[in-house]
Specification:
This protein is of the alpha+beta class and 175 residues long. It has one domain (3-129): 3-Layer(aba) Sandwich (Rossmann fold), CATH 3.40.50. The protein contains seven helices and six strands, in the order ααααβαβββααββ. Strands 1-2 form a two-stranded parallel ribbon. A two-stranded antiparallel sheet has the order 3-4. Helix 2 (15-21) runs parallel beside helix 4 (65-77). The two termini are 28 Å apart.
Amino acid sequence: MSPDLLASCTTDATGRDVVLSGFFSSTRIFPHHHPDPEHLARAEETLARLGITHLADRAVAEMSSGEAKRTLIARALVHHPQTLLFDEPGNALDIGAQIQLRETMRELARSGLGILLVTHHVSEIIPEIERVILLREGRILTDGPKLSVLTEENLANLFGVAVRLGQSDGYFHLY
């Protein structure tokens, strides 16, 4: 869900166009693209899976950042991947959209999809993530089970400041 991809989609392209564009390795449907019935069916199925069928005919330029990001997730899901990479997914999202995105990631993880999350915010780590790798300056600082890795000592070492760590409903929070 790179900002560049999102920016290139903010034309008159609709949510459906963005999802279908994944079949053509493009950012939208161009006149020379001809989605076949299977593509159309998979796009509709994926929009429904994410609960965003109401965005199918809406222009991306008229969507909120959260809606546009969910449309880009649908674009990736039409290929039935085994794993999705989320790179700083909460950037540019308001609190409501962040919570909705986390719930979407949780649903995907519970369905058996692997989730690889890159983040600076421990509060984005969904409960279903079992393994955490802390990186500093491109090197592995700590790697292992989430409960062993997410400690005040490890996080203070990572960020270079004293932190307090709390946990609630399977989520971690820094103070």
